[in-house]
Design a protein that fits this description.
mainly alpha; rod-shaped; single chain; 0% strand
């Protein structure tokens, strides 16, 4: 009889040991995946910050180049339009004015074989596309992690451990209503 009791106790101890290990394993899995969720949310915030920094810096750069090229071309066109009129001393002033405008333009052409505003617009648009792709990948990754976590919260027998320790279903990333309106993302480059 004592041998049977010891065997039953050993079996019960083994079952309790296995169940305790199983609960601890599932609890640790929930904790790990919660950290993955937090990390992915941080990654999304980082990408949004990159977007904000990028939009501001590139917009300012494009504005700056556009303004410089516009003023340079206006000076050159104005100097050319004036032509050489009036007295010889007046013509010498006009020539010096034209030379100054052309020297400025020549410096631009030496640094940049062609005016670069359109190149900056193209670069801006490429960076916008890359940033939006990165944001989309981060959102998709978050939703993949949320799905894995939510399945664990809902399926048997993991749902038992989830209820014991208060793990609840997480919300998927969802775009705000205003994000559906492309006008909300306009950036003025003038």
């Amino acid at each position: 009889m004592l041998g049977v009791i010891l065997v039953v106790l050993a079996i019960l101890f083994f079952i309790v040991f296995v169940l305790t290990g199983w609960v601890i394993g599932i609890y640790n899995w929930y904790q790990s995946i919660k950290q993955d969720l937090n990390t992915q949310w941080s990654n999304i915030k980082t990408e949004y910050q990159r977007r904000a920094d990028l939009f501001y810096n590139l917009a300012e750069s494009v504005k700056s180049h556009k303004k410089f090229e516009k003023s340079t071309l206006i000076e050159v066109v104005a100097a050319r339009a004036k032509g050489l009129t009036g007295s010889i001393p007046n013509q010498k002033k006009q020539i010096k004015g034209m030379e100054a405008a052309f020297a400025k333009l020549l410096a631009v052409f030496e640094q940049y074989p062609n005016l670069k505003s359109h190149t900056h617009y193209e670069k801006f648009m490429e960076e916008v596309r890359i940033t939006e792709d990165r944001i989309n990948v981060a959102r998709t990754s978050l939703n993949d992690i949320v799905r894995e976590y939510n399945v664990g919260v809902k399926v048997f027998p993991r749902n038992i451990v989830a209820k014991w320790f208060g793990f609840r279903v997480e919300a998927y990333f969802k775009a705000d209503d205003y994000a559906q309106d492309p006008k909300s993302y306009r950036v003025s480059l003038d």
